[in-house]
Amino acid sequence: MSNPTETATQSPADVVRALYAALIRGDVPGVLARLAPEVMVDEPRQLPYGGVHQGREVFAQTVLGAMTGYAAVTITAAEVYEGAAGVVGTLTGTLTAHTTGEEFPLTMVELHQVEDGAVRKIDVYTKDPQELAAFYARAEAGIR
Question: Does pTM top 0.85 for this prediction?
Fold first, then answer.
């Protein structure tokens, strides 16, 4: 999607589908290409990478870097729905801790604001942020 006019003509749902396709492939440059330069990502505060992150590079280092630093991420399903309030995406998969091999089921719902062919804001909700934070703490400590 290096052609800006191609991206601009996509529906907001198509932009998020392309983002998720790149994420599933592990294509970080492809993920970043679908994000606005000043993208704002709001992650649950309980997580080691929780809080509001602004900018593509900050997102890549802080969120993606932390997630993949602790665990291998496998996305098994991604669904996208478009409505009046924006684009809703669901991601399911598995995190596998690098240190212990522990597996954790990942379930996320994301609300995307898409403008001019790029994701400008993502609000992220996880099924159980406290348990996910505990998983990351165990992965960091190397214990189950």
Answer: yes
